[in-house]
Write a structure and sequence with these properties.
With 325 residues, this protein is mainly beta. It is built from 1 helix and 27 strands. It starts with a strand and ends in a 7-residue tail after the last strand.
């Protein structure tokens, strides 16, 4: 699925093709969507219904049903534009948003309410551009225009309790949204400019700025320097590539954790094989693709990679399976 302007488009990857199967337009022509996320709902018959959560400039989260062909509901509450949405890895009812209002919000899609806000006193000082859950859903990563990367815990008792309460709360009073002002880790030492993409890689972190590289580093939660919040880290590796000194360019990690891919501003995609020792990237290009590749994404089985470009084109690359594998 892709977003652009006020439109959401759903594709199917067939045999050597990418086919449009559904498309939606927001009722507001002034809306500009920035992010889309797959969401899943368990029906009463034990089946899983697939949908989309989309958000952007107006700060609204639209949840769209693919089977019912309509907008199911809209979540409101963010103070400004929403730059990224992420689904909780173990609970399909929980959705995380990163916003221009300097905060992250955790939403319960089943009960349609905001339950938790990360931000405030020791939070981001500027627009939050990207966020990610670790696989065990113990921590959330965030990064933004303040050049920082922060880590927030989901394991404290108050966080666990508010998530549990969000399913059963029936009081007529507004839901008591929990505010978390203090991350468990924060650093500005990795990058010297906007940090526009951050992802977990096991216990390590991958992040990028407009510095022509993706940095792999390890946060140290036990070392404290000048404040009560740990800020020490160790850089492990740098994945360097060229012509990517503009911001809002997202990289991706394959679901099998064997590859990292990132596009640049002249239409090339850099692909690193990380199943062994990191080497120089393979460069994927096409003569008709010459504008910025804003985002790349892998299929669940890691065999297909899709890239989206500033000229509204979608590019597909297939993994060649070696004989005997």
């Amino acid at each position: 699925a892709t977003v652009g302007s006020n439109r959401v488009t759903v594709y199917e990857c067939g045999d050597n093709s990418v086919n449009v199967i559904q498309s939606y337009s927001d009722p507001c022509t002034e809306e500009i969507f920035y992010t889309v996320c797959w969401v899943y709902e368990e029906t009463g018959e034990g089946k899983i219904e697939t949908g989309l959560a989309v958000a952007g400039m107006r700060g609204l989260i639209r949840v769209v049903s693919l089977s019912k062909l309509k907008n199911l509901f809209t979540l409101m509450g963010c103070g400004d534009s929403i730059n990224e949405l992420k689904l909780h890895p173990t609970d399909n009812n929980l959705l995380l948003s990163a916003s221009k209002d300097n905060s992250l919000r955790l939403w319960n899609l089943k009960t349609r309410r905001c339950i938790l806000i990360f931000g405030g006193l020791e939070g981001h000082r500027d627009e939050v551009l990207s966020c990610d859950f670790d696989l065990q859903a113990t921590y959330v990563l965030s990064c933004g225009m303040d050049h920082s990367v922060k880590m927030w815990s989901l394991q404290s008792e108050d966080v666990k309790n508010i998530i549990e309460l969000s399913y059963s709360y029936k009081d007529e009073k507004p839901f008591p949204v929990l505010n978390k002002h203090f991350p468990v880790f924060g650093t500005r030492n990795i990058h010297r400019n906007y940090v526009d993409c951050v992802r977990w890689f096991g216990n390590f972190v991958l992040s990028k700025s407009c510095e022509n590289k993706i940095v792999c580093w390890k946060p140290n939660l036990s070392v404290k320097k000048s404040s009560d919040i740990p800020d020490q880290s160790e850089v492990l590796h740098s994945f360097d590539y060229g012509n990517c000194d503009i911001w809002y360019m997202r990289f991706a990690i394959s679901p099998d954790f064997d590859a990292i891919a990132a596009g640049n501003q002249v239409g090339k995609v850099f692909l690193w094989d990380i199943s062994e020792e990191p080497t120089k990237p393979a460069i994927l290009s096409h003569q008709k693709c010459s504008t910025a590749i804003r985002q790349v994404c892998f299929s669940p089985d890691s065999t297909i990679m899709v890239a989206v470009s500033d000229d509204s084109t979608v590019w597909r690359w297939d993994k060649e399976l070696r004989s005997g594998t």
